[in-house]
Amino acid sequence: MYDFTYQKPASVADAVKLLGADPEAKALAGGMTLIPVLKQRLNKPSALVDLADAGLAGISVAGGTVRIGAMTTHATVANSADVKKAIPALAKLAGGIGDKEVRHRGTIGGSLANDDPTADYPAAVLALGATVETNKRSIKADDFFQGMFMTALEPGELITAVSFPVPEKAAYMKFPNPASRYALVGVFVAKGPAGVRVAVTGAGQNGVFRQKAMEAALGKSFSQAAIADIATPADELNSDIHAGAEYRAHLVGVMARRAVAAAG
Amino acid sequence: MAFEGIGASVRRTEDQRFLSGRGNYTDDINRPGQLYAIIRRSDRPHARIVSIDTKAAAEMPGVVAVYTGTDLQADNVGGLPCGWLIKNKDGTPMAEPPHPVLAVGKVRHVGDPLAVVIAETRQQAKDAAEKLAIEWQDLPSISSTQDAIAPGAALVHDDVEGNVCYDWHLGDKEAVDAAFAKAARVVRLDLTNSRLIPNAMEPRAAIGDFDRATGEHTLFTTSQNPHVIRLLMGAFVLHIPESHLRVVAPDVGGGFGSKIYHYAEEAIVTWAAGKLGRPVKWTAERTESFISDAHGRDHVTTAEMAIDKDGNYLALRVKTLANMGAYLSTFATSIPTYLYATLLAGVYKTPAIYAEVKAVFTNTVPVDAYRGAGRPEAAYLLERLTDVIAHDTGLDRVALRRQNLIPANAFPYQTPVALQYDSGNYQATLESALKAADWNGFPARRAAAAAKGKLRGIGISTYIEACGIAPSAVAGALGARAGLYEAANIRVHPTGSVSVFTGSHSHGQGHETTFAQLVADQLGIPFNQVEIVHGDTEKIPFGMGTYGSRSLAVGGSAMVKAMDKIIAKGKRIAAHLMEASVADIEFKNGSFSVAGTDKSKSFGEIALTAYVPHNYPIDELEPGLEENAFYDPKNFTFPAGCMVAEVEIDRDTGVPSVVSFVAVDDVGRLINPMIVEGQVHGGVAQGIGQALLESATYDVSGQIVTGSFMDYTMPRSDNLPSFKTGNEVTLCTHNPLGVKGCGELGTIGSPPAIVNAVIDALSEYDVRHIDMPLSPQKIWSIVAAGPKRKAAE
């Protein structure tokens, strides 16, 4: 790790001010990706602006929407009675991220801002048609994710919360990378206000994506049979020592069918 | 008080400190005025070093020194030695290229140490190491074992022709050729034994210290054998006499072989501490461990078995290419020869065997012993080949094993590959394992799994290993440059408590418990009055250390020998006190008594008398009660057994799950059955790791792809079933305890059992063999191709 200064502002406004004043400064949410990167000296920020005291943690449910503050940890989401009741698939997804230590440090805002192509949350945000709230605006899920580690966030823009419309039914199925346990392929299937959506994480070369052929089929008949013959083109999928693109394409189908079955 | 002697499952006394964070590991040690070393390593697989400019690094804040290979050379620092000389088929010695402590001229693998920066803080050393300006000239590199011998392959060492370290053989070629000529059938199998990264929980660390007042050097290091490090580093690298070099290996958090060897960093910190007159500490980061700890296995093999029409084994022919990596690690050369080819009889009475082993250099991390070391490669080959013979001939795989096993009445049994097995009963472990696994009930379980849409398979392996290494004379005749005995010192204190100084080294095995049980049992004193001391050349008379499952068989036997001397002296003291003849004194349950009388003296009374010799045969006996012993075994020990695994495969994803695992082993006499069972569990976990998950992978450019836990798949608890273990006991005939060793059998017996089970699960797809690790993707590709596919071999 290189030296950096550490600041812990007490509000989003102060955080934004600090980040705006120093283009080399970085926001620190849970640090589950950033800290290992710093330890390996792969990044050299001048300052870390810790958002822990910026008042961004918390969960509320109102008017058919679950709103989760950006600094809410995965463990909090996983264990929230409100989330479990409103969107059990989301609580289950949060409970399956990393390990216990990661779940108690990592946050939803940090995960989304980082947009790791093998992270779990992007699949839920995209499939549920969630809205990402920032200090400047609200961004629709479809506009938020723009490729591997690339989002619509602009300099000086911080995620403050994510609002999830409560779906009629939803489920997430993950095939973990055997080594890292990140998603090799993760499929979130939801039927809700935004219609039927199927979002795939872990597999795509450009990060999370929607499997629209499956969405169309499930829109007609929400059943495993409806998507049994829908193949996912392998040409834009990742290939590595754990899984080639063809295998990933196959797993998208398996995980999607299992998610449909689990969603009921 | 509960029974705590031989055979009791006493809880491990050392775990109290390990589990409560009170262990004292090398990195926990800090010396006054300590500096920190950071090693700059090569990020290139193969390159000429045109220049290293150290100026900018040396000027960084806090930097005390920057050294490169030429600095060490100028100071007469030697290269790292190889401890085992192998001779080629024609009798010429193996190629033994220099292994400089810091690279000189060329770097030969990613991770090759290139320079060291020493600074007041770790952070400063790290900052400065980045300022080293290195000019490279990249060279073509060799990433894989087979590529090393390809025509026109780049040379890892300029003067090692064809990258061949040695071309060695063992066995009777003519007899094998003759048997093949008349065989009813020959079954051939090509396989690889995958390359593994040991990944001990504690990364390596070393602290060099130098006492300017006495001129004594001290090295604290994560080692399985501190005396061996003192010998190798003192004699070959730094030229420091043993009298002035102390090596301490305190608590060590796992070794699995990877902490046997003398590593560059140990020499660097010891040398630099002497140079600078200040202690120097180096601690590996996990990423460094992946590219600097010796790797394991990495064989490419063709095996052929000649059989008669009934499936009796007539002759075995094996041809193996073994990867040494870029340099020869300390014992690398002995692994694919004397710990592999000598085991190719396995538990079978194959009358003729011929093995050829070619060891090659590649631009990869050096390869050396990893838990099992050579024996897993032999067992995997034989047990896969046996299943393939069954597959090709239609014979039953259990029947095939039964008919070829060495009979229980054939011991001592001389194999055609140099070893003589002293004892064993392979039928007993086989039948016991089959029963424990309910082998005959498998079809019903397969049907039940099929009803759930799963493919279920069962696999078996009957393995043997050579442990307790070994007679020094034999090892020497085979090329070892060291002896392989063990030393013990037993110090009885005046009030009868006992300190045991052992040359064995515990790095997780529970020696402080097992050895204390052994000594308490033999001397008839309470368990809690025995202290086990290890890991410090200043305290221990001598030691060859812990590897090859040798601690109890060799180290424990040395303790027995020392205790025999203690008891013999005690008898003389007791005879004097009780005015009896020494011949009439009996020692039992901690008391010396005069045969046929009720006169007796306790062990404590005799100890006190030895140290307070008022009434004492002082003219003929020295006071005190302390004895040394060195024990050099007459033979290896030969633990053996049978493992049975059951797996279920998810057809949709190809994911294999181990649903049942049975291990029935013969490890000779058990001192602490709980610890033995723990050793089996740990070893089987690593074996399942190799079979299904682990593989060190290099890409064609020579970069390591599995350089972190993000890509190197370690087995985790959810990859493992609950193990069922059992024991059948035949005693070792040549050591005083009848013990054989248990540390490695899990990694030896389990990989073939698991692979055989997966192949069995895929029987409807007619798969003959799949190379490890059996990843979901490999399995899925077979299932996806549909039944009766002839798999690539």
Structure description:
The complex is a heterodimer of chains A (264) and B (793). Chain A contains 12 helices and 12 strands. By secondary structure, chain A is α+β, with helices and mostly antiparallel strands. Chain B is 27% helix and 24% strand. A 7-stranded mixed beta sheet of chain B has the order 3-5-1-12-9-10-11, sandwiched between helices. The longest helix of chain B has 27 residues, at 551-577. The interface between A and B is medium-sized, with 18 and 23 residues.
TL;DR?
The complex is a heterodimer of chains A (264) and B (793). Chain A is of the alpha+beta class and 264 residues long.
Q: Quickly give the structural class of chain B.
A: alpha+beta
In round numbers, the mean pLDDT of chain A is 97
Distance between the termini of chain B: 60 Å
Largest interface: A-B, 18 and 23 residues
Oligomer: heterodimer
> Biggest sheet of chain A, open or closed, and with what strands and sense?
5 strands, antiparallel
Q: How many extended strands of chain A?
A: 12
Task: List low-confidence stretches of chain A.
Answer: none
CATH superfamily of the largest domain in chain B: Aldehyde oxidase/xanthine dehydrogenase, molybdopterin binding domain
Q: DSSP helix count of chain A?
A: 12
Number of individual domains of chain A: 2
Comma- or semicolon-separated keywords:
heterodimer; A: 264 residues; alpha+beta; Uridine Diphospho-n-acetylenolpyruvylglucosamine Reductase, domain 2; Uridine Diphospho-n-acetylenolpyruvylglucosamine Reductase, domain 3; 2 domains; five-stranded antiparallel beta sheet; four-stranded antiparallel beta sheet; 35% helix; B: 793 residues; Aldehyde Oxidoreductase, domain 3; Aldehyde Oxidoreductase, domain 4; 3 domains; seven-stranded mixed beta sheet; 28 strands
